[in-house]
Amino acid sequence: MLNSNFWRQVYSETKTREPVPNRPNTFYPVPAFEIPFLLDATILSVRTFSTTARFTWKYAGYLSAVTRVSPGIPPTILERVTLPINRTQLVVFKKYISSYELIFEPFYWFASMGLEIWEYYGSDSATDLESSIELIKNTLNRLEEKVDDISTYP
Questions:
Q1: Which end of the chain, N or C, is less surrounded by CB atoms within 10 Å?
Q2: Dmax of the chain from CA atoms?
């Protein structure tokens, strides 16, 4: 996954909130980003950015992988993650179906929001990633046990 040749940018957009007519200093929230095409990659890199974000704000909003069961019915959420503001996050979705839609809903207090999405199209290493995480957890547990054993020596 570290090879940049296997990543491609698939989406980039910035949106701003709009004023409510006849209501001074009142705004609609930044509208949701509905990615206008289906994705099939399980590994994404997602960046959010906002020049209007306060330094104390940590999160930008929710990114949801959705599918439409039937026309006229709201989309079914497969997975949902909270994205940090002004950061890039690696997002790994489980492979529920062959393709899905993405919807990003910024939190209502933002005046503007940018979203960039890259997909990883190399070998599907989601299972490799899960097994690597499991191996790291097991190794960490063994190390913790050894540290505990060492700390009991006089």
A1: C
A2: 76
User: pLDDT per position in the chain (154 positions), as tens?
Assistant: 666 788 999 999 999 999 999 999 999 999 999 999 999 999 999 999 999 999 999 999 999 999 988 888 888 999 999 999 999 999 999 888 889 999 999 999 999 999 999 999 877 555 566 666 777 778 888 887 877 777 776 6
- Angstrom CA distances, 67 to 5, 8, 61, stand at 29, 23, 19
Name the token pair of 68: 């439409």
> Parallel, antiparallel, or unpaired: how do β-strands 87-92 and 76-84 relate?
unpaired
Q: Which residue do the tokens 């704000």 mark?
A: 57
- What phi and psi, each to the nearest 5 degrees, are found at residue 146? -65, -40
Instruction: In whole angstroms, give the CA distance from residue 100 to residue 67.
Output: 5
The structure tokens 């910035």 sit at: 14
**13 has which bridge partners?**
115
Helical (H) or strand (E) element with 66? strand 59-67
* Sign of the alpha-carbon torsion through 69, 121, 91, 131: positive
**Structure tokens, 139:** 């190794």
